[in-house]
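Annotated sample (chain length 355).
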Amino acid sequence: MPRKIKSKENGLITVTEIDKLFPFHFSINEELNVLEKGPSLSKMLRTKEKYSHFSQLFNLISPKTVLDPTIKELISICGKYVLIEIRGINGALLKGQFDYYPTSNTIRFWGSLTTADSNQLMRLGLTYADFPHYDAIFDTHQLKSLLTEVYETRLRAEEEQRDTISRDLHDGVGQMLAYLNIYFNILKEKSTIEISDIEKVQITLRKTIDEIRRISRNLAPPAIKQLGFKEAVMELINSYAIILKPVFHLKMYKSDDPIQFLYEHKIMIFRILQELSSNTFKYAKAKNVYINIEISRKEMKLCYKDDGIGFDPRTTRKGIGLKSMLSRVEFYGGMILISSEPNKGITVEVNLPFD
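Output written by the structure step:
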């Protein structure tokens, strides 16, 4: 979180610039009255009072102190990662940290909002512009460079996804439908249609439906919030059963998901599994894939291995998918280790700490 705040004019960032960078910021005094709120946070809070008490608006979830904390208790957790629930809005959490300013005896919260309910956000009048989340405030040049890089990477990823969908439709669904068209023309020439003829059509239709479902699942993950993360992952792996090789071996934790395992984390891990599986199908020529996911209150670990042809990391250029995986994990403070050798498969280890 911010240490030094810069601008080109006088070395200080203006209130307007703070609102743009951290629209969910707020500050509180020694009585824990909220002195000011960022514009996006103001949209969400169900109060028009200028001064409202912290405990009326928020619940401190992690680290948990007491139900109604004092300023001393909040000062003691300044500089640490915190989760705050917004009262009256289910699923809406603020994530960030507190900073203490002894001169004015006030505390400011810096961070962003996370939620699993996009429909809820729409009802609140929020957009993606309300969700910038940075681990530091950059100067104008750095911030512009960062946003440009993120935007360009997103465009390249979207273009690659369109190409993938196009190939899948052409090579998979398109070929199956072309086969059915030819087969129906053959059946029209037959004087008698046998049950075996109908069964052949049914088999191809089922394969076509399964392929369409696979493409749809790759476009948008299942409703993780409704299904649960473990169930969503198992459904993804089970969908690969229509393909003979590789065989997937999945080992997952049995405990409930800790509250620190946020919706964004789940989507990120799900997307990483999709990307790794897709690469195995395309390039690895593997017979087996081994996936192990472990979780605790402190961290989540993912290990993905295949026994395919592997590659030499020193000579293989990183694609958009790999760069996307790395940036996603690093964004949430995690680490990813990719190791491979020719003819020895690949091992990918992801560690995501919750603190």
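Annotation: Residues 140-189 form the longest helix (50 residues).
Annotation: The CA atoms of residues 113 and 159 lie 28 Å apart.
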